[in-house]
Amino acid sequence: PRVAVLLNVAPDHLDWHGSMRAYRAAKGRLWARQQPGDTAVYNADDAGARDVVAAHPPPAARLEFTLGAPADGQVGVEDGTLVVRREGLRSAVVSVTELSVSEPHNVANVCAAVAGAVAAGADATALVPALRAYQSGRHRLESVASVGGVHYVDDSKATNPHAAAAALASFPEKRVVWIAGGLGKRLEFSSLAPLIRRHVKAAVTIGTSGPTIAHLARSVGVHAVEAGRLDAAVAAAARLAEPGDTVLLAPACASMDQFTDYAERGQVFRTAVETLGAEYAQGAGHGS
Prior knowledge:
The chain is of the alpha/beta class. The protein has helices spanning 14-17, 20-28, 47-55, 104-119, 128-133, 161-168, 193-199, 210-219, 230-240, 262-281; strands at residues 3-6, 39-43, 61-65, 74-78, 81-86, 89-95, 142-147, 150-154, 176-180, 200-206, 223-228, 246-249.
């Protein structure tokens, strides 16, 4: 491809690839057929992406993106403005406050998109209308409803610990009732321990990896309920949440132990929340 973009690399799909070395090699194939006149775009802040670049160097030119102030050859954020620095030139693109997404990982995604477009020949300033109009896709930190002062958010697309970590970090400390679990894909969840301790007031687990995640939460002093099924998890989370809290579905796992895919899982979550809202409106809700 003329432009190849690598967002991040963290353990995932190890049930298929067998090892992180093989997984990194698969990611490195992204730019294996590029030519010197092409561009490889990658995340300078992500250790996994840097490891892939080191182990499988792109034959193309490189353009990095970062959440920090960019150096030459980077797209980044400088004093709240997304900036492109390339070949000695500086182009201010758009203020982060003008974007509909504000979470760090989503701002990084915007930087990646700008880097990819610029590498493909776009004028950075011509991207502004599209960047302002962009809305995040379904099941990606999607606001579902507020019931009894509790906010319900669907991040069913968080199918590995790395994605769940980004979701948890998007919310205030100790204000998240976290719904997690599913098909574990031979992944380790221990990297989530600091974020669970910091952001989660209670965990409610589902699926085959539920007991493992519940044990991890308890190991860092967080109350955990093993609900098993998602509809039961939503009901349990509603009982645990207080006004101002967020009930967050960010499973850290694949869905195929109980659902067809992450989209079905997200829809089941939405249906359970809508049922909860209807019951609350009738005076029978469990939210406090």
